[in-house]
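FORM 12-B: Structure-to-Sequence Request
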């Protein structure tokens, strides 16, 4: 039995960006995905931080969907 996973409330711009990117990848419509990407881009992360946030969003989705990490 998989344990239920919940998203935590973001505590800073980095966490909010990871959440927005995760939502962009899993939302049902292109319009909502675009809105999430716009929000993520507006949070002021550096290019390096944004790349790290993208990788973390993908990792989170793997954990949520498959219950495992794929590095």
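FORM 12-B RESPONSE
SEQUENCE OUT:
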């Amino acid at each position: 039995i998989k344990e239920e996973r919940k998203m935590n409330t973001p505590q800073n711009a980095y966490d909010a960006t990871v959440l927005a990117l995760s939502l962009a990848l899993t939302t049902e419509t292109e319009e909502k995905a675009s809105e999430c990407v716009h929000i993520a881009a507006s949070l002021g992360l550096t290019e390096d931080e944004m790349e790290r946030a993208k990788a973390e969003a993908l990792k989170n989705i793997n954990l949520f969907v498959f219950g495992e990490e794929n590095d």
